[in-house]
Specification:
Blueprint: H1 2-11, E1 26-30, E2 36-41, E3 44-46, H2 49-55, E4 65-69, E5 75-81, H3 90-104, E6 109-118, E7 121-131, E8 136-146, E9 149-158, H4 159-175, E10 177-178, H5 180-203, H6 220-241, H7 248-268, H8 272-292, H9 298-307, H10 315-328, H11 332-347, H12 354-370, H13 378-381, H14 385-393, H15 402-408, H16 411-425, H17 429-445
Antiparallel strand pairs: 1-2, 2-10, 3-4, 4-5, 5-9, 6-7, 7-8, 8-9
Length: about 450
């Protein structure tokens, strides 16, 4: 531990010549090969190794990364130390460091010691004045565990100039960000997405009824692919939930996203009983999230594009899936309730992804038509169709005909066919005939 105290003493003796402070914009800097990023004023310079060697004695106590303002008034030094403090409370390590520094360096004047939480990471903060050759230095030293090592930052300036720089120094301190688990969660998300896609690409074959087939019939490799996808999604979701480095919005979203992904995997092999309630619960969670963060929020859209190839789950998606799972279980009333909720989530709220909204409403309508007529009447089954058609038409130029729209969006014909059936059952033959004419014109033009 003695080497650590010597390193702190060396950091506290950085010489900073006096100069006038001025207001600058800042730039976020990632310290290479570390989970640390920090925002520095634009007039700061990141030192090369020659400059570090000039200002700090080479050896194990030398910082690995240093930045300073161009006028030399403030310095920021970073190092990774082999000291393992992960097995003890951070407050205990902080008190030991304070005692050790006081013993190894005379003339220290203590200003503050505290445990400070910055962007989700707890740091020991030691603030003190240390004597230098021709001045005194105010040091703000932050250290914390990094696996079985320790990371350390020292931000300092002379006592003479400190008041001029205090505002910018405090901004630098508040900007310190440790994103080890955040990066890991995003990488785990990418891995989970890739594993799910690998399994889905094989299993979700439109030419066979996968829900009625046994996974084990396709060999150990397929079973292993499925298990890896499920395990990966589960671990990514758990890691997301406990990663306080992530913005709350992203942390909650990824946790729910991975629960949904796990459910979709299980549903695809016919485990409807295992997933219907979980789908309902994650739907409730997504609904609460979407009350404050609308579906396809730009910030979330950015991370889903990067780490899940744009796969973006919503309350409407998962509510629909719960309804479909309940249909397979023969629990038709509950299925109807979930399907209607899925449709209402889109019809009653702004939904920024129109194409996806039309897809969900089409699936809702198709599923309502599958349910027994004593559970869902034709009148109720077609309740979302007018809205679906109007929504779909907004994807095309204003004067586009229904005929042209259907040719560009073939699945629109499916929902219109359901509409015709429902209109006839309600004795609205004139409207049914008009829609039938549109479909017949398209059919007559097909080779």
């Amino acid at each position: 531990m003695k080497s650590f105290f010597l390193m702190l003493v060396a950091y506290s003796m950085i010489l900073v010549p006096a100069a006038a402070a001025k207001t600058q914009n800042t730039t976020n800097i990632s310290i290479p090969e570390t989970p640390i990023s920090i925002s520095l004023p634009n007039d700061y310079e990141i030192y090369g190794q020659d400059m570090i060697d000039l200002k700090f004695q080479p050896g194990p106590q030398q910082p690995t990364w240093v930045a300073g303002s161009n006028d030399g008034t403030v310095s920021v030094a970073f190092s990774i130390n082999s000291e393992n403090i992960s097995a003890k409370p951070l407050a205990k390590a902080m008190n030991q460091m304070k005692m050790g520094l006081s013993q190894h360096r005379t003339g220290l004047k203590w200003i503050n010691t505290e445990i400070k939480k910055l962007k989700g990471k707890s740091w020991a903060h030691l603030e003190f004045i240390s004597p230098a050759l021709d001045s005194e230095i105010i040091n703000n030293i932050f250290f914390s565990s990094y696996g079985k090592k320790m990371i350390l930052l020292n931000i300092n300036a002379t006592t003479k100039e400190y008041a001029k720089h205090e505002e910018s120094i405090q901004k630098i301190i508040k900007s310190i960000t440790y994103e080890e688990c955040a990066n890991n969660v995003r990488l785990m998300t990418k891995a989970a997405h890739d594993k799910k896609k690998k399994f889905d690409d094989f299993w979700l074959d439109p030419n066979r009824e996968v829900l009625n087939e046994n996974l084990s019939d396709y060999g150990d490799d397929v079973v292993l692919s499925y298990q890896k996808a499920v395990d990966s999604a589960f671990l990514a979701g758990k890691s997301s939930w406990y990663c306080n480095e992530l913005p709350d919005m992203e942390r909650h979203y990824w946790a729910y996203h991975h629960i949904a992904a796990t459910n979709y995997l299980k549903m695809s092999i016919g485990l409807a009983e295992e997933v219907w309630l979980s789908f309902e619960e994650v739907s409730d969670s997504f609904e609460m999230l979407e009350e404050n963060i609308p579906y396809k929020n730009p910030q979330l859209l950015d991370v889903t594009d990067k780490f899940s190839d744009g796969t973006y789950y919503s309350a409407a998606h998962t509510r629909l899936s719960s309804g479909i799972a309940l249909m397979y279980l023969g629990r038709y009333e509950e299925a109807k309730n979930n399907l209607n909720k899925a449709g209402e989530l889109i019809t009653k709220n702004p939904y920024s992804d129109i194409q996806n909204a039309v897809h969900v409403l089409t699936e809702v309508t198709s599923s309502l038509f599958v349910l027994p007529r004593d559970v869902v009447s034709y009148k109720d089954a077609i309740r979302f169709i007018p809205f679906s058609i109007d929504l779909a038409m907004t994807l095309f130029p204003e004067n586009t005909s229904y005929k042209d729209a259907i040719q560009k969006m073939p699945h629109l014909a499916e929902i219109i066919a359901h509409y015709i059936k429902g209109l006839k059952s309600n004795n609205d033959y004139k409207a049914a005939q008009n829609w039938s004419k549109i479909l017949s014109e398209i059919d007559s033009e097909r080779p």
